[in-house]
Design goal:
Length: 224
C-alpha cells in the first residue's frame, strides 16, 4: 500500500457550479444599497475569497457599514435560493461525484475541502449532495483568513497528518494555486471553473475529471 496522500478540493467552480445563485444573491446585495452589480466576470473572478474580502474587492468604495449590510443581504438571499433549488442550487460538474467516490475508495487517499464558503454553507452542501463521511477535513472561511493565505491547507495537513509533499490542492482560481504554493503543496487547476485556466499558474491543468488521477499520481509520486 502506498503512503497516505491528501487531496484538497476547492468547492465552487471546482466540484460544483453555483454561479446562478451566487450571481442572483450578489444582485440582491448590490440592489439593497442602490448599486448596480459589477459585471458577471468580475463577480465570478472573486469566487473563493471570503465574503468580506469579496465585497472589499467589488464594493471597496462603499464604507464598512454598507459592506456589512451587503454581506448580510447576500447571505440571506443565497440561503433562500439554496432552500428553493435544493441540490440544484450547486449542481456537480459532470464527473465530479464519480471522481470523489473513486478517490474516497482508495485506502491510501484522504480527501479534504478548503473553501471560501461559510461552515454552515459547506455543511448544507455536503448534506444536500449526500457527501457525509467523504471528507476527512473541512476548512472554511469562518475559521481562517481568506485565500490565498495558507492557513486552510496547513489545518488540513495537521488534521490528517499527511506531509506537504504528499498533498495536492485542486481548484479553479489563482487564489487556490497561490494558497497551495504558500503552504508548500502541489496544485492542479481545472479548466471548467470561474477563472481562465491559462492564468492559474498551477503545476498541472486538467480539462476533465479523467485527467485527475494521472496528475495526482505524478505529483504525489504514487505508484499503483
Amino acid at each position: 500500500m502506498s503512503e497516505l496522500r491528501l487531496v484538497i478540493f476547492d468547492v465552487d467552480g471546482t466540484l460544483v457550479d453555483s454561479q446562478r445563485d451566487i450571481l442572483a444573491a450578489m444582485a440582491e446585495a448590490f440592489a439593497s444599497e442602490g448599486l448596480a452589480m459589477p459585471p458577471r466576470e468580475r463577480v465570478l473572478s472573486g469566487v473563493g475569497l471570503s465574503l468580506p474580502e469579496t465585497f472589499l474587492r467589488l464594493a471597496g468604495e462603499q464604507g464598512p457599514d454598507s459592506r456589512t449590510r451587503m454581506i448580510a443581504v447576500y447571505c440571506t438571499a443565497y440561503a433562500d435560493l439554496r432552500q428553493k433549488h435544493g441540490p440544484e442550487s450547486s449542481p456537480f460538474y459532470p464527473g465530479a461525484r464519480a471522481a470523489l467516490e473513486g478517490l474516497a475508495a482508495e485506502p491510501y487517499t484522504l480527501l479534504a475541502v478548503a473553501t471560501g464558503k461559510s461552515r454552515r454553507g459547506l455543511d448544507r452542501l455536503i448534506e444536500a449532495h449526500g457527501l457525509e463521511g467523504v471528507f476527512h477535513s473541512r476548512q472554511t472561511a469562518d475559521d481562517h483568513p481568506s485565500k490565498p493565505h495558507p492557513a486552510m491547507v496547513h489545518a488540513a495537513l495537521d488534521e490528517t497528518g499527511v506531509a506537504p509533499q504528499r498533498a495536492v490542492m485542486i481548484g479553479d482560481t489563482r487564489f487556490d494555486v497561490e494558497m497551495a504554493r504558500a503552504a508548500g503543496v502541489a496544485s492542479i487547476g481545472v479548466a471548467w471553473g470561474y477563472q481562465p485556466a491559462a492564468g492559474l499558474g498551477a503545476d498541472r491543468i486538467i480539462h476533465d475529471w479523467a485527467g485527475l488521477r494521472p496528475a495526482l499520481d505524478d505529483l504525489t509520486e504514487t505508484t499503483r
